[in-house]
Automatic annotation (TrEMBL):
Residue ranges of domain ABC transporter in the record: 3-242
Gene3D superfamilies per record: P-loop containing nucleotide triphosphate hydrolases (3.40.50.300)
A cellular component annotation (GO) from this entry: plasma membrane
Name the UniProt record assigns to this protein: Putative ABC transport system ATP-binding protein
Superkingdom: Bacteria
Pfam families xref list: ABC_tran (PF00005)
Single GO molecular function: ATP hydrolysis activity
SUPFAM superfamilies (alphabetical): P-loop containing nucleoside triphosphate hydrolases
Keywords from the named record: ATP-binding, Nucleotide-binding
Organism: Isoptericola jiangsuensis
Amino acid sequence: MDLHLRGITLVYPDGEGTLTAVDDVHLTVPAGTTTALLGPSGAGKSSLLAVAAGLTRPTRGCVEIGDDTVLTPTTTVARATRVRLDRIGVVFQSPQLLASLTAVEQLELHAHLRGGRPAAARARALELLDAVGVAGQAGKRPAQLSGGQRQRVAIARALMGAPEVLLVDEPTSALDHERGSRVVELVTRLTRETSAATLLVSHDASTLGSVDARVRLVDGRLAADPAAAAVRTAPVPAGRPPR
Ligand SMILES: Nc1ncnc2c1ncn2[C@@H]1O[C@H](COP(=O)(O)OP(=O)(O)OP(=O)(O)O)[C@@H](O)[C@H]1O
């Protein structure tokens, strides 16, 4: 299913006033494709991702998956959590793995939270760890894994629920260029294979050779046309679109 962000605006309280972190963002990510979200520090990238993930309620606008409106300014926390568990996979900037669980157990826990059957969960978890290239590390705890391996486990965990939408925040920030590019390639390949609609936040445009589209946020506003196929190789345009 396609992911649609319709007029997303997020306003934070800021001292006596307010701060508009995301300002009327309209964006569609087609199923089976990866869109990279670029922009300077403080542009609102993580805020937009948090809204798309149902972790923060938008002040205005809504999130749609296919034809379903799933998140709005009035969505309850319980409903947003259910939508995330059922339909959205999230990979955070730091992998956020539980120290006491092995790689395969991290994935099984996710299935347990969703109410899945244990036997099916183990088989699926092992399959996904294999798909992300860490099958040999299934029995290891996070402390025994490299940064790249931890990130791969986090990606596999996000895919456990066969999500329609995959949201990935800065997957390469702790990795060198080579490993960073490989993690982005992995995300784009799995996105195609699972037909997810993937939005990937990145600081590092040099790792994005494999993505399908790039958009840029500047001061909370979208500043590039995501649809142009040519963006794959073209430099990222700067500046604001006309209002
Ligand atoms: N919980 C919050 N309360 C108030 N302001 C916030 C909050 N979270 C973020 N902001 C502000 O919103 C703006 C956007 O922040 P955000 O973290 O979304 O940017 P970003 O593009 O992800 O930045 P970076 O690349 O540095 O992670 C910033 O001005 C930030 O200070």
